[in-house]
Recover the amino acids of this structure.
């Protein structure tokens, strides 16, 4: 190991914090949908990818303001999410195998449609914020700083909505006990649709935010699905607090292991971390055993 | 009555015959000769694959529109069959198998080093000519007599760039390598280890990454403290745009030294301002340093497809030119031994000017195309030609660095 200065460590921490922030935003919808509708949405990465393409389309191609482009993409993907929930997921709520099958189909449909419309050439969103911040020897681009702040803001808004509004209470009620919530007059279907709106739009927002940092391609959804799945397994399936903590754990583990041991080993370290935690607490960090 | 019935039929045949005589299409269409391309039209190298395919298609159209090729006194049109190799070795082999055994192709153009290496296992036993774009020197060998390379490999490009840097940018002393972990990477490390000390440079950092990597935080965190003045990068991998962007964000102020084929979209992916000063071997089509044939090709390609062709577009076009002239010079449409002999002994008029295959001393077989290398710099939002290294100088540098 080289360069074990404080600024080097700080750089690694900053890298991990950035990664954890956008993973948190990208994964929140995945855990919400599982917790509320008992759907493990394997096509979640596609919403992230569509958000990236949407932002590219509106901002890079049509020169609409960057933030408005992201919001537009989130809105469009949310509408698509409603359609997917209403006409596809609702039939298979709680059934794992059919859900996996239809999600696989959705992935193929979205990937091929995007490739047919936009081509195979990777797209890039021009940098919105130039330059970087330097503090105590560690450096972070202003772009990544904006992503961290936007991720924290959107996640906070989502959490405030879920915990401090009436529709949010309905979401929590359905997540706790679907039958009980239905008996109380809460429309489970509407709550699931609302959850899908929140989840898919947050994923799209994450895809749009990282557009200026990474390339936009039809394949960009799969890595986020894999990392998001690890995050919700680690945090506890359906637990919002769990996925927030897990995202930052994953961010730090990846950053430290990739920097000090190499990227090829960091994936292995990540899975080892997951295994160790699940062996100690099988339901995840904030998961709980329930009739669901 | 009979005569009246026959008159309209007779008139009809006269009219049809007249149309046929004055028609631009021949009464009987020219026969076809087939050329196959196994290019990565999808997957991580789709950009370069598509450019190469378009270059080949453009060449075929131009030749066919001009009447095709003449072999043994007979006219032939070229039929280009393109299969997608998806930048996967297995898919490339499958594509080449289809081209040879289903489509009856006897000449295959291929792109990508892994695909090139793997496909020889199919083309050599079948005595099919294999040409194309590949980066490592192992693609050529006396054991693969039907294989020819129509691009210049990293074993020549990298020493040429480093020699040029040492002579023209002497402050660039500390060289780092951030490269996709592929077969080419090992050769790049060996080449830089050999070249840098001989030209007064220090090879300070080696970082190999998964070709699919988009986030380079960890790699750059390790590399930046070593203070490289120049970083050698693999232009053909999908993460190259983000890598260049993120390097600048992490404070790298030196120059990028581009290895491999630059996709035309790279400045948009990386950000033009981030690419300032990047050293490339991609033609500057506005510079008189670039051969006129290459400049004209770029103009036609851009006019037809509204994008830059990149070097793979050039290679695709070149492959078709060489194919066409080989058949014409050999006088054979399906004799690959005659084609091989022609390729080894003849010169060809191409967009690069007159070219030939050589460098038997270095590779053990004279199947390396001898074309000039153009040194360009990415400056002020575009390419600027700053030098040309002719084939004899390339041989001289190779001998200096590799001792052969």
């Amino acid at each position: 190991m080289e360069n074990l200065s404080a600024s080097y460590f700080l750089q690694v921490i900053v890298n991990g914090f950035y990664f954890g922030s956008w993973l948190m935003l990208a994964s929140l919808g995945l855990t919400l949908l599982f917790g509320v509708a008992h759907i493990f949405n394997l096509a979640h990465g596609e919403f992230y990818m569509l958000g990236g393409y949407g932002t590219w389309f509106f901002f890079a191609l049509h020169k609409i303001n960057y933030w408005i482009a992201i919001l537009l993409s989130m809105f469009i993907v949310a509408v698509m999410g409603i359609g997917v929930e209403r006409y596809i997921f609702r039939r298979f709520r709680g059934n794992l195998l059919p859900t996996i099958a239809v999600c696989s189909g959705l992935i193929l449909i979205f990937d091929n449609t995007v490739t047919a419309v936009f081509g195979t050439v990777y797209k890039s969103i021009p940098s919105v914020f130039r330059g970087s911040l330097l503090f105590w020897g560690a450096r972070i681009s202003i772009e990544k700083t904006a992503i961290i702040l936007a991720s924290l803001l959107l996640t906070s808004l989502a959490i405030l909505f879920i915990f401090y509004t009436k529709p949010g209470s309905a979401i929590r009620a359905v997540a706790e006990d679907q039958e009980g919530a239905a008996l109380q007059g809460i429309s489970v279907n509407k709550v699931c649709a609302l959850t899908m709106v929140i989840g898919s739009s947050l994923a799209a927002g994450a895809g749009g935010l990282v557009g200026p940092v990474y390339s936009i391609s039809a394949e960009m959804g799969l890595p986020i699905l894999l990392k998001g799945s690890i995050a919700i397994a680690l945090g506890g399936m359906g637990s919002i607090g769990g996925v927030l903590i897990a995202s930052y754990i994953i961010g730090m583990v990846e950053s430290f292991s990739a920097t000090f041991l190499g990227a090829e080993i960091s994936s292995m370290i990540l899975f080892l971390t997951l295994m160790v935690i699940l062996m100690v607490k099988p339901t995840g960090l904030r998961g709980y055993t329930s009739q669901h | 009555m009979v005569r009246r019935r026959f008159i309209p039929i007779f008139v009809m045949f006269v009219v049809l015959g007249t149309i046929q005589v004055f028609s631009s299409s021949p009464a009987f269409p020219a026969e076809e000769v087939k050329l196959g391309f196994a290019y990565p039209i999808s997957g991580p190298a789709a950009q370069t694959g598509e450019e190469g395919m378009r270059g080949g298609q453009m060449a075929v159209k131009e030749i066919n529109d001009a009447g095709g090729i003449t072999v043994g006194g007979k006219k032939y049109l070229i039929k280009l069959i393109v299969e997608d190799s998806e930048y996967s070795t297995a898919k490339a082999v499958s594509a080449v198998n289809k081209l040879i055994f289903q489509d009856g192709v006897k000449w295959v153009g291929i792109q990508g080093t892994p695909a090139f290496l793997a496909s020889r296992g199919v083309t050599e036993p079948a005595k099919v000519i294999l040409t194309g774009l590949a980066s490592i020197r192992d693609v050529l060998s006396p054991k693969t007599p039907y294989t020819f390379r129509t691009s210049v490999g990293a074993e020549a490009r990298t020493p040429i760039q480093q020699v040029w840097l040492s002579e023209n940018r002497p402050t660039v002393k500390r060289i780092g390598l951030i490269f996709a972990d592929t077969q080419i990477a090992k050769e790049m490390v060996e080449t830089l280890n050999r070249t840098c000390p001989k030209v007064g440079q220090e090879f300070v950092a080696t970082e190999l990454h998964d070709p699919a990597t988009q986030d380079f935080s960890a790699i750059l965190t390790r590399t930046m403290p070593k203070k490289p003045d120049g970083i050698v990068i693999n232009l053909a991998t999908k993460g190259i745009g983000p890598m260049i962007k993120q390097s600048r964000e992490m404070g790298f102020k030196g120059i990028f030294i581009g290895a491999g084929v630059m996709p035309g979209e790279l400045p948009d992916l990386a950000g033009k301002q981030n690419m300032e000063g990047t050293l490339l071997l991609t033609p500057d089509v506005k510079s008189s340093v670039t051969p006129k044939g290459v400049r004209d090709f770029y103009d036609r390609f851009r006019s037809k497809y509204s994008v830059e062709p990149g070097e793979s577009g050039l290679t695709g076009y070149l492959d078709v030119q060489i194919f066409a002239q080989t058949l014409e010079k050999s006088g054979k449409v399906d004799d690959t031994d005659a084609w091989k002999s022609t390729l080894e002994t003849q010169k060809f008029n191409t967009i690069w000017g007159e070219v030939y295959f050589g460098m038997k001393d270095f590779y053990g077989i004279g199947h390396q195309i001898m074309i000039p290398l153009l040194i360009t710099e990415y400056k002020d939002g575009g390419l600027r030609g700053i030098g040309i290294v002719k084939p004899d100088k390339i041989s001289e540098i190779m001998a200096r660095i590799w001792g052969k």
Q: What stands out?
A: Residues 2-22 of chain B form the longest helix (21 residues). Residues 22-27 of chain B have pLDDT under 50 and may be disordered. Chain B touches chain A at residues 41-43, 46-47, 50, 209-210, 212-215, 217-219, 221-222, 225, 238-239, 241-242, 245-246, 249-251, 265, 268-271, 273 (CB under 8 Å).
